[in-house]
Each structure stands twice: as C-alpha cells, then as structure tokens.
Task: inverse folding
C-alpha cells in the first residue's frame, strides 16, 4: 500500500472503506504499482476473492449500495501549453467517479472535472485536479452519487492564464453514469480544503462544508454561509460532517484543539470542545443516537462516543490499536458498528479497526 506515511492533503490517500447494506465491506487502496485496488471484505473484515485493479494513481473515497458502489479516483491529465502568467501549478489531472457492480467490475466511468481533448488544464475555464488540496468525498441519495473535492480553476489573464484553487461538487446518476442537470456547482469555496459532504434525507439534498481562507472559517458554500468563525494561522482544518438529530455536526480544529459545531442552515448554534488535542479530528455516526469522534495519538487512535443530540461525551475514551491517518474516514454500518481502515504491521498489509455496536 502506498501513501500511509504521507499525511498532508497534497499527498496520496492510501486507503478507504465502504459499508454495504448486507454488512460486508468494499476496501480500496493505492498500491505501489500506482494503481487503485478494490477488494471485498466479509463480515469478519477478511478479504474474500480476488481484488480488481483500476487505473488511477490516487484514491479519494469509496461508497457502496446493494448493486455495487462507486470509487472516486484521480488519473493523469494533460496541462497543455498555457502559458502560465507565473509560478507552477502542474500536474493537471482528472477526477473520476467509477461505478462498479457486486463483483467489483466497472459499469461506467464519469469524469467530474472538465478536461477534454481540446480543453487542457491550462485552457481558460478548465477545472482539474492538481497537487494542492485535492482530496474529496462521496455521498449517495439512493439514486445519485455526489462527489465533492478540491479543484484547480484556470482563468485567462491577458495572453496567459492564472491557476486558482477552490472546490467542486458534481452529481451523477448511479444507473446511467450521466451528470445530473441542475445539481452540484462549478466552484463553491475558494480557497478551500477538507471538502466534506453528507446526504440529508429530510431536505432531500446534499449538504457540504469546507474550510476556507475566505474570512478564515468553516463554511457552507454556494452561497457562502459561516458555520464557525476562525483565523488563518495555518492550523484551521475541517474534520467530518454528519447528520444530527436535527441539522448537522461538523468536526474541525483550530490551534491543535478539536471542536464540534452544530448547525442547520448557517452559523453554528452550539460548539463544544470534546477535549481532543489534534489538528485532524474524525467524526462518524454511531448507531441511532450517537456519534464517534476519533483522533491520532502516537501509534494508536483515541475515540470518544458522543451523544448525537447534545455532543456530550458518553463513557470514557477508547484506545484503538491502529495508526491514524489525517484524511482517512471511519464509515458507519447498518448494525450500528463503525470501521476504520489503517496500515497493518507492514506497509504491505491493511488492518481494519471496528467499534462494535453499543447497547
């Protein structure tokens, strides 16, 4: 597995996991062969069958449904000639949603950036994936998959082009693989990082948050709405976004201290500090009325169960015998458990940490 030692948003995401309706999992990882591998796990989190290999040098996320699932992966693209007005911005890569069936085989491939044979990365209006702040996440509404990710923005400036940075959300029909008209946005936050998305069945819509240096805050994009005010001192990071009993909880950090903010359509109505010292908190729904916050602590991971209505701690912190990664996500399962994929005892092995349901 490649990338577990690299912890920045500019580096490869090594591994991601997805829960299926039947309680099994799909596990995706980036190999040292510069390919994305996809394998099935049984209910004991053991690999079954032969993994499928996909072209792609970077992994963003994997989500699953009863008919298979979707990978979000990055592939090599072409910058073209430009010219740039100054500086460097390569590479110019493409982001793809790959639909796979219950055997892991590809059904369709939809690019969610906009490069073509005639529109290269350095063409005016291009939206591509570069080295900077490029990670993304997937969400599913039962019919469509949405991808929300960091994107490079090419803008003509006289006889040359400038490259800016923001984020982009695209929605694709799970059956046809076609982009859904009227959904998503070209650019949301700018400059942005830690793009997070969740589907809200009550609103019947996808909800997104970002960390941004536009007023230095955790915000909802398109249009901007401040969730939590902060400062741009290099220590502002978003964590994860989950459904609350009503509204949403988002984990984030400032100054190495984790925070949890509850909001509905704008500014947080409640922010709590759960006592976690980290720049990269992870948050996942856990059962029907709880959530689990986790963070790295040396060679292990600490986790705290929280009330999903109030954000209050439930019980004492847990210690999980896996190494944390800044940008890898826990995933929730229908039985009430949650799972996290991590590097195993060697770089050629993967270990799944699972917190079982709480009675």
Result:
């Amino acid at each position: 597995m490649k990338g577990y030692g690299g912890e920045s948003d500019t580096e490869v995401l090594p591994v991601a996991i997805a829960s299926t309706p039947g309680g099994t999992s799909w596990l995706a990882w980036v190999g040292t062969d510069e390919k994305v591998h996809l394998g099935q796990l049984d209910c004991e989190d053991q690999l079954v069958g032969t993994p499928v290999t996909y072209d792609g040098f970077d992994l963003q996320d994997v989500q699953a449904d009863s008919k298979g699932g979707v990978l979000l992966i990055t592939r090599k693209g072409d910058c073209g000639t430009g010219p740039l007005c100054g500086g460097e911005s390569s590479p110019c890569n493409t982001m793809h949603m790959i639909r796979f069936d219950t055997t892991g085989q590809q059904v369709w491939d939809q690019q969610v950036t906009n490069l073509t044979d005639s529109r290269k990365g350095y063409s005016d209006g291009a939206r591509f994936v570069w080295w900077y702040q490029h990670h993304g996440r997937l969400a599913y509404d039962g019919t469509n998959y949405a991808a929300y990710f960091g994107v490079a923005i090419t803008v003509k400036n006289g006889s040359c082009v400038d490259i800016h940075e923001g984020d982009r959300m695209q929605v694709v029909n799970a059956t046809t693989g076609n982009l859904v008209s009227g959904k998503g946005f070209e650019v949301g936050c700018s400059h942005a990082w830690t793009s997070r998305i969740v589907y809200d069945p009550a609103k019947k819509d996808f909800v997104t948050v970002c960390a941004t240096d536009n007023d230095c805050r955790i915000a909802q994009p398109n249009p901007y709405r401040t969730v939590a005010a902060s400062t741009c001192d290099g220590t502002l990071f978003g964590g994860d976004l989950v459904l609350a009993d009503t509204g949403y909880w988002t984990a984030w950090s400032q100054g190495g201290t984790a925070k949890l903010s509850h909001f509905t359509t704008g500014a947080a109505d409640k922010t709590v500090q759960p006592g976690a010292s980290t720049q990269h908190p992870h948050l996942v729904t856990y059962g029907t009325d709880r959530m689990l916050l986790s963070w790295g602590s040396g060679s292990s991971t600490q986790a705290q169960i929280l009330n999903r209505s109030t954000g209050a701690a439930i019980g004492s912190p847990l210690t999980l015998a896996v190494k944390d990664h800044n940008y890898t996500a826990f995933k929730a399962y229908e039985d009430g458990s949650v799972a996290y994929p991590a590097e195993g005892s060697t770089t050629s092995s993967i270990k799944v940490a699972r917190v079982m349901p709480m009675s």
